[in-house]
Amino acid sequence: xxxxxxxxxxxxxxxxxxxxxxxxxxxxxxxxxxxxxxxxxxxxxxxxxxxxxxxxxxxxxxxxxxxxxxxxxxxxxxxxxxxxxxxxxxxxxxxxxxxxxxxxxxxxxxxxxxxxxxxxxxxxxxxxxxxxxxxxxxxxxxxxxxxxxxxxxxxxxxxxxxxxxxxxxxxxxxxxxxxxxxxxxxxxxxxxxxxxxxxxxxxxxxxxxxxxxxxxxxxxxxxxxxxxxxxxxxxxxxxxxxxxxxxxxxxxxxxxxxxxxxxxxxxxxxxxxxxxxxxxxxxxxxxxxxxxxxxxxxxxxx
Amino acid sequence: xxxxxxxxxxxxxxxxxxxxxxxxxxxxxxxxxxxxxxxxxxxxxxxxxxxxxxxxxxxxxxxxxxxxxxxxxxxxxxxxxxxxxxxxxxxxxxxxxxxxxxxxxxxxxxxxxxxxxxxxxxxxxxxxxxxxxxxxxxxxxxxxxxxxxxxxxxxxxxxxxxxxxxxxxxxxxxxxxxxxxxxxxxxxxxxxxxxxxxxxxxxxxxxxxxxxxxxxxxxxxxxxxxxxxxxxxxxxxxxxxxxxxxxxxxxxxxxxxxxxxxxxxxxxxxxxxxxxx
Lengths: 302, 277
Hints:
heterodimer, A: 302 residues, MetI-like fold
C-alpha cells in the first residue's frame, strides 16, 4: 500500500522533469550526435547524403585556407576584445565599488547595451560608421579630431570597428561580474591595511587583484568563449568582409550551413560544415583546457 | 590636491564611458524622426524637423505591425515555456534524488562551457520541420527555450534558500509533489521567476540568427529584428534609412522601457547563480 503511493509520487517527479529533459536532449544533445554522424557524409541538404569517410577532414586540413584564416581572425578578434573589455570593465567596477551619488544610475547606463538586440544595434552602427554620411565621421570632423572621413568598415579598420562594437555591447556584463566579485572582499582587510599605512596602489596589487583572482579566472573563461561565439553583429555589419578581413570562424561555419547572403549564392555544405564544426569544437576545447591548466598553475604560484 | 585630480580623472572616465554607451542609442532614436533625405545627407545629430510619420510608414507600408506582433507572441511563448520547464526541473533537481541526477547536472554544466556555435541550428531546424512545427512560431519558441542550463542553475540556487521543513510539513499533510511545487515553492521563488522571465523574454525578443533561419522559408513568421536587419539587404535600402531607424527604435524602445523599471533584476540576475568564486 505504502510503496504504491510512493511510486506514484515518483512518476509525478519524472513528469515534472520530462519537459525540460526532452528539450535538452532534442535541442542540445541530439545536434551534437547529429554532427558526429554527418561529418562523415557529403550532404547538401537536398540530395540524399553519401558516405565519404574522412574526406571532409582531408579537405579541411589540406585545402581550405579560408577556414584557417577565419580561425586566425577569430583569435585576433578575441584578443582585441579581451584586451579592451577586461581592463575597462575592471576599472569601471573598481570605481563603482565606491559609493557615490548616481552610482546605480551609471551602472544601469553602462549595462544597458546588453539588453538590446546586438543585430539591430549592429545595423545602426553600420549606418553610424558609414564613410560619407555616417554620424561618427561628421562628429569627429566637426570637432576637428580628424581632417578627412575615415573608412571605419574598410579593409584596414573593419576589425577594429567590430571589436569596438563588441566592447560597447559587452563591457557592462563584465563590469557587473567584477563588481559582485569586489563586493565579496571583506572590508576589514582594507581597514587593517590602511592602519598599516598602505596607500592605494599597494592595496590594489596586494589585496584587490589577488582577492579577485578566482572571479577573474571564471570571467576570463566566459569572455574567451563569448568572443568566439558572437557573430550576430559581425554578420550584420560586415558579413565577414571586406575581403574576409572580419571573417570569424563561427560565421564561416554558419555560411556553410546557410549560404544565403547578398554576395554569395552557393550550395549548402552540410556534411563539410559538420566536420569543420566538430574540429572547431575540439580546438576550442583544447584552448579551454590549456587556459584552465595555466590559470590553475598561476593560482598555485601566487 | 592629488585627491581632486584623481576625482577629476574618474569623472572624465565615467563621462566618456557614458557618452560611448548612450551615443549609438540616441543616434537611433533621433534618427527615427529624421527624413530619409536628412539621414542620407548625414545632417546634424538632432533632427531638423521631427517627423513622426516614419513610424506610420513602418507600421503601415513596411508591415511592422505584423513583425512586432510576431516578436511579442514569440517572446511571450518562449517566456512561458522557459518558466514552466525550468522551474519544474529545478524543483525536482533541488529537492529530490533520482538515478542519473549527477550525470544530468554534469551535462547541463558542460554545455555551458562548450561552444557549439551555428552547428546546432541546422539539425534543430530539420527536427522542428519534421515535427511540423515550422509553419508557425511554435517551433522557433521551443528552440529558443532550449535546455536552459543557466536558468535551471539560477532557480536551483534560489530554491535551496527555501527551508526544507516547509516541504516536509506539507508532505506530512498529505500533499503530492506537484501540489508542493505549485502552491508552496512557486510563490516563494517569485523573485527568481521574475529574472528567468526577463532573461527569456529578452533572449527571444533580441534573437536574430535562429529567427532568421526559421523564417527563411516562411516569411509570415518573421520577427522584428529579422525584418529590421533585412532592410539592409533590400533592393532599395538607401531609400529606406528612415524605416531602418524607425524599425530599430520599435525593436529597442520596448525593452528599454522594461529595463528602466527592472534594471536591478537584469543586473543582479546576472550574478545571482553564476560567479561565486
